[in-house]
């Protein structure tokens, strides 16, 4: 299998190798973003759920340790809560832009590699060796880049949706927490 891959790389143009390297980088970046953001969002959500449960159980506002802590030191207000929620949304959705970029550009990068491979195949056809046994494998090898591009785009798109949902769950939790905070502050 590894020998087949090396043979493919040896017969490929430098542009095809560059395209495959680029898509490999995208693939690694996709899984890195997924793992890092998943762990971060899960830990943050668990912490905020604990805070919300504490607020519901009437814990003193000065004892909370949440995303709102630094915003409510001078007192709870709707404006401070809104600013905090906006900042939290920005933090929670970090990395999603890169997943969107990868999901939308990977197929085009793969297609570019395929076009270059097909152009090379047609340039060889001018040498007079036009049999199907020569052209078909070259076209097949050129199509590998498109397949790899799609292969990279699918998890990037999927992970983008999964992380977006996780961020929405966290933001919903923070909104509920803000409602309890505002209600608690008004009742004091």
Features:
188 residues, mainly alpha, 0% strand, rod-shaped
Protein described:
With 188 residues, this protein is an all-alpha fold. The chain contains 5 helices and no strands. The longest helix has 56 residues, at 132-187. The mean pLDDT is 87.
Low-confidence stretches: none
> Between the first and last Cα atoms, what is the distance in angstroms?
70 Å
Number of helices: 5
Describe the sheet with the most strands. none
Q: Roughly how many Å is the radius of gyration?
A: 26 Å
Look at the helices and sheets and give the structural class. Answer: mainly alpha
Short description:
By secondary structure, the chain is mostly helical. The protein has helices at residues 2-11, 14-56, 78-92, 96-125, 132-187.
Q: How are the secondary structure elements laid out?
A:
Elements lengths: L1 H10 L2 H43 L21 H15 L3 H30 L6 H56 L1
Helix pairs in contact: 2-4, 2-5, 3-5, 4-5
């Amino acid at each position: 299998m590894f020998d087949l891959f090396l043979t493919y790389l040896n017969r490929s143009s430098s542009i095809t190798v560059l395209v495959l390297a680029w898509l490999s980088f995208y693939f690694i970046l996709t899984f890195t973003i997924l793992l890092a953001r998943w762990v971060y969002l899960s830990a943050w959500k668990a912490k905020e759920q604990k805070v919300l449960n504490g607020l519901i159980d009437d814990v003193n506002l000065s004892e909370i340790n949440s995303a709102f802590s630094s915003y409510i030191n001078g007192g709870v207000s709707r404006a401070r809560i809104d600013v905090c929620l906006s900042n939290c949304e920005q933090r929670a959705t970090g990395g999603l832009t890169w997943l969107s970029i990868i999901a939308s550009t990977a197929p085009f990068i793969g297609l570019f590699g395929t076009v270059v491979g097909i152009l090379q195949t047609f340039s060889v056809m001018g040498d007079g060796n036009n049999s199907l046994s020569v052209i078909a494998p070259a076209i097949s090898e050129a199509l590998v880049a498109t397949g790899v591009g799609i292969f990279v785009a699918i998890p990037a798109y999927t992970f983008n949706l999964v992380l977006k949902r996780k961020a929405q769950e966290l933001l919903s939790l923070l909104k509920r927490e803000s409602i309890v905070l505002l209600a608690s502050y008004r009742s004091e």
